[in-house]
Write the structure tokens for this entry.
Amino acid sequence: MNAEDLKLVVKEKYGAIANQSLNMTPSSCCSSSGCCGDMEISMIGDEYNNIEGHNPDADLGLGCGIPTQFAAIKKGDHVLDLGSGAGNDCFVARAIVGETGKVTGLDFTDAMVEIAIENNNKPGFTNVEFVKGDIEEMPLPDNTFDVIVSNCVLNLVPDKNKAFTEMLRVLKPDGHFCVSDVVIKGSLPEILRKDAEMYAGCVSGAIEMDKYLEIIKKQGFKNITVHKQKEIDIPVVVLENYLSKDEITSFKNGDTGIFSITVSGYKI
């Protein structure tokens, strides 16, 4: 699939998740409950329950970490959340920046932007805004943000070089990012790597960890730090849709691993 087709898959899948959340308890490809039939992969390993600013209505279980914990956000900062979804990480960031700061959420799915705005209308924050836009071509001005966060989203962006180039552009001098994302150590079986459902489920869009970090470095970021990493398990019931029993055994016992990582880098 080409980049535009992959974006369409993601937009349709996450639009369905947003619409579902308006009518019932939400679930997603990256949550333990799953929205994709057999495509049930639990990404999240951290709980937001005791974190200030956490909004249960805005938490769709789509994350693979809590980047705000390591983002060194300060009171008064202007924070950008890439792939902001229903707005949960924006509200966590808002609790840190306070009244004097500002938080902007960017998402390219209409339904996600709509539900995020609805969630923001309840507390009525005047310094939180949600914008529709593509991470590869952000409709945002240069040198605007102190901190960028993102949670299990950049792995869904086809051109990660463009994504990090755009991040560098919109950050202020001495600004920084902190993102939680999915990466691979080793190599996925070809059938998993090319599958659209696996892409929307945050797996096949992930790239090898060293390559991911090299892209960040190549785009000009400095002081790159991996704060946390945790292995993600793909359930056998999912792998059975793609691999034989022998292939599953080889995959499970091999050198390939899928990890959530939280990483930061600075624009210097």
Notes: The chain has one domain: 3-266.
